[in-house]
Amino acid sequence: MLPVIDPAASNTAPKHHPGVPVLPLPFPPAVPSLPGIRVPDTFPERLGALLALLNGVTRIDWTGSGARAGRSVPSGGGAYPGEVYVATGSGLFHYLPSAHALELLGGVDLRGDLTRALDRPPVQQPEFMVLITSRLDANLGRYGPFGHRLQALDTGVLTGQALTLLESAGAAPMAHARFVDEELGRLLGLDSRAEHVHAVVTARSPGAIAPGASLLRRRTARCGFEPAPVPLGSLLTVLEEASRPLPLDHAAPVGCDVYVVAQRVSGLAPGCHRREARTGRLVPVDGDVTPRGLFPPGGPGELAGFEAACAVLVTGDYEAGYPLYGDRWYRMLNLRAGVVGQRIGLAAARAGLGAGLRCDVETAAADAALSACPDRTTLFAALLGQERGSGAPACHLSVRSREAGRKGAP
Ligand SMILES: Cc1cc2nc3c(=O)[nH]c(=O)nc-3n(C[C@H](O)[C@H](O)[C@H](O)COP(=O)(O)O)c2cc1C
Description:
Layout: E1 22-24, H1 43-55, E2 57-63, E3 66-71, E4 82-88, E5 91-96, E6 101-106, H2 111-116, E7 128-135, H3 140-143, H4 146-168, E8 174-176, H5 181-188, E9 195-203, H6 213-217, E10 225-226, E11 230-231, H7 232-242, E12 258-262, E13 265-266, E14 271-275, E15 282-284, H8 300-307, E16 310-316, H9 318-325, H10 328-350, E17 354-358, H11 363-368, E18 377-387, E19 394-396, H12 399-406
Parallel strand pairs: 11-13
Antiparallel strand pairs: 1-6, 2-3, 2-19, 4-5, 4-7, 5-6, 7-9, 8-9, 10-18, 12-14, 12-16, 14-15, 16-18, 17-18
The structure holds flavin mononucleotide.
């Protein structure tokens, strides 16, 4: 069953803390996306690039209804319920994506107190901490209770992006899903009726982010897909990235395996395939399903599925984790899935493929394709294919585009 959506209800506005000092970050963000283009390398520049790529406005998209600010990460329904806080030796800060600035919430070093609230703190005291919260009312008006799942997946997307960025900055990150919620909320000064910490990423002090144009190119293929084949090799690189081990503070009894429902992949038979974790091979699974058949008839998902080259199903097992982690497992499983979803989006951009995460799959139809593994359920689908035309026009906001403009590059 798909959730009942109230399209007239708007999502709530992002959070800010009136009256606290606001520290502007260097703009446009120094996003080193081309080797050979030198960007300034001071700590504020590095932090600015990290936060812009984590949750900031990184492009302007022109759509049928006008210009729209595009963010570095996707979010279910574009609601962006996640807020990002940073703890360093200089204090606690909240990131304002629209202003690309930090609100200074306190000049006291809270890293020790925050680390003590983690169930599995890292052996060495973290130098840099990212705390990802969710505003509880952000999308419930529009999506009802289903909004909670979107919030859990969005937390995973942000966590995945933080891990990718901090790995590339040589900061050896670890994501934590197990902690004393109330204590972290108290340290951040959150109203527990309105906002909860959902994930924490601990790391060493980040260096410069390695060049990665794909970080800027990621976006949802909003104009749809050309109904054209994609090479198997490109799909396999995306799946390999999606299946890399996750640096998390807990082991999962059953992870987020990926399946592919292929339609137009050169060298791969149409139908459902399971990715073997050990070998990376795609093994056919019984069942007669197409990407189009994963979505309710007559809806936008059906058209997108019809055009896409394939759908990647990210799956999980709700029952397996409850005996170990209790109710928190729901959040933990969707967090894992969100990390995998973000990796798929970035890897697709790197491979030159269009992509789009979708939660409007008909779960029963998708799960029927997984009949070989009856305990698994589909958490979401990522459609992959060739983005239609050149996609919607977009202008990237970064030092790269400024420098490229100066050099007369297009
Ligand atoms: C967890 C999640 C679920 C999503 N589900 C859908 C969906 O069901 N249908 C859809 O068209 N887009 C879906 N999206 C894509 C968002 O609408 C999109 O990310 C958002 O509008 C921002 O656009 P961008 O990805 O181009 O930056 C989903 C994104 C996420 C992260």
